[in-house]
Design brief:
By secondary structure, this protein is an all-alpha fold. The protein is built from 4 helices and no strands. The longest helix has 19 residues, at about 45-65.
Length: about 60
């Protein structure tokens, strides 16, 4: 059930913040490093760091009861 809820939360995130959702896909599901994710998304590693932190916060909030 948690994976279904997580998937739903990522889908919702993709509607409003598509790059954040892509960062989650690359980092969490793809196992890519910050640098690898930055290369794939054509952004800086610092942008990936900020996006990753923001995405985790938003997903944590979406999954909390």
């Amino acid at each position: 059930e948690l994976m279904v809820d997580l998937n739903d939360a990522i889908d919702k995130l993709a509607v409003t913040e598509p790059r954040l959702a892509r960062v989650v896909e690359c980092r969490f599901f793809g196992g890519l490093s910050e640098e690898e994710t930055a290369e794939v998304l054509e952004v800086t590693a610092r942008t990936v760091q900020r996006d990753w932190a923001k995405a985790r916060m938003l997903l944590r909030r979406a999954l909390s009861p």
